[in-house]
Amino acid sequence: MSSFWTIWISVISLGSILGCYLLLRWCLSNKTGVEEGKEMSHEFDGIVEINNPLPQWWTYLFILTMVWGVVYFILYPGLGSWQGLWGWKSSNQGILTIEEGKKATAEAKEQGLVVQYDREMEHAKETYGPIFAKYAQQDIETLAKDPEANKVGQRLFLQNCSQCHGSDARGGKGFPNLTDNDWLHGGTPADIKKTIMEGRQGTMPAWGATLGEQGVKEVVAYALSLSGRQVDQSLADKGQARFAICAACHGQDGKGNIAMGAPNLTDNIWLYGGTERAVTETVMNGRHGVMPVWKDILGEEKIHVISAYVYSLSHTE
Q1: Which CATH architecture has domain 138-199+292-313?
Q2: What is the pLDDT of residues 12-27, one digit of tens each?
Q3: What are the binding residues for heme c?
Q4: Taking burial as the number of CB atoms within 10 A of a residue's CB, which of 56, 63, 232, 303 is the most buried?
């Protein structure tokens, strides 16, 4: 935090307490010239104002809040760079990587600092760790049939995966639908878990410069025809000859390659859209998709439960 903001926060915070004290002191002083308990000159509709002091309970409560404010600023961080006598803070600020977070947590523990976030994470680990350990002993197919485990997996999914795949796991443009049986890298329990643990990177090269505009039209026509779409047959016939450069990944029959994450072009399921325009853009400019690595963030036991939940979405029976 810069010196400006340190001074600004300190002045505003302490100034507010001082202002409240001065206001209370002014209200407690009798500046009317009329003895307390006597009638004043203000009258309206037969009602005469009496010069009464502030209620004592209200005054004491007001003083208590000011005292608490001062004590709080002494014990806790709040005045600029002041860290407080108790060494408490809500979290380790300025953390950019998982490694930095782990290092900061270890250092805070060695120094005896009270980091609220770290304490809550430790408490959560102690409370829920045994539950995840129990689930980890079961294979994913068995766990996928456990309603309670699926509820846990769903909550983890909503917290960590729904931003890309949607709360219903049906995905969106560029993000796979997890409720069907179309899997770029395989849909077995082991494949799903590996995908979440280690992440995936899928790259579709840009073929515009190689094929040219006309060549792209021909390849797109043939690719769309593989899934039974109506296309210009003359373009599709020419595209079939050019498809050799695509077959290296998608196979001669266009059914894809799980080992490479190359999609099946015959099922009419399109990750980036199946319109002629969308497929043309894919072939012309290429695509690059990234599934993040989650093993260092969630850990294997939580990923095991998420994998079971994801597996259950496409295996409802």
Answers
A1: Orthogonal Bundle (1.10)
A2: 889 999 999 999 998 8
A3: 161, 164-165, 204, 246, 249-250, 291
A4: 303
